[in-house]
Amino acid sequence: MRAKAGLSKAQLCAAAGVHPTTYTRAERSGFCRASTLRKLRHALAELQREQDMEMRMGDRVAPLYRMVFAMLAVEAGLCPETALALEPRQNRHRDPNWAAAAQVRRQALYLVVTLLDVPGAVAADAVGVSKQAVSKALSQVEDSRDDPATDALLARMEALARQEVAA
Questions:
Q1: Of residues 87 and 39, which shows the higher confidence score?
Q2: In 3D, which of 143, 157, 44, 139 has the Cα closest to residue 131?
Q3: How high is the pLDDT of residue 165?
Q4: Strand locations in the chain, DSSP E?
């Protein structure tokens, strides 16, 4: 069941509070205490619930991200469809359109993650970037909020996005 869920032994053991050696010994011998088995089953069920919730959340994150991205792109004077089509992994920093779209992408990620309290991994999957890219984007946007114009833009977009989520 653990393998089907895509979980490592270390993940399951950490969630269950069971030492990995105990798990390995039980796996080899086919015997373990009832309390250990109960802990493992409970942790597995909880981890599976979390995975299911993240998958359902991911289905809602991508459309919201695209909506926020489009609003920010319009504010930046970009065509949303064209900006969204620019591949994040190309790193074309000298291309002004790519650089502007990258800034919009960072801001959209920031708003989606902070508005919905979405885990970085879920946002990364929904947008098609790495977890590290999400983390870096959040840090960069947070630093840029020291600029009053950027802070005002993000506050305005946050209010608009909250209205859309509530509707």
A1: 39
A2: 139
A3: 66
A4: none
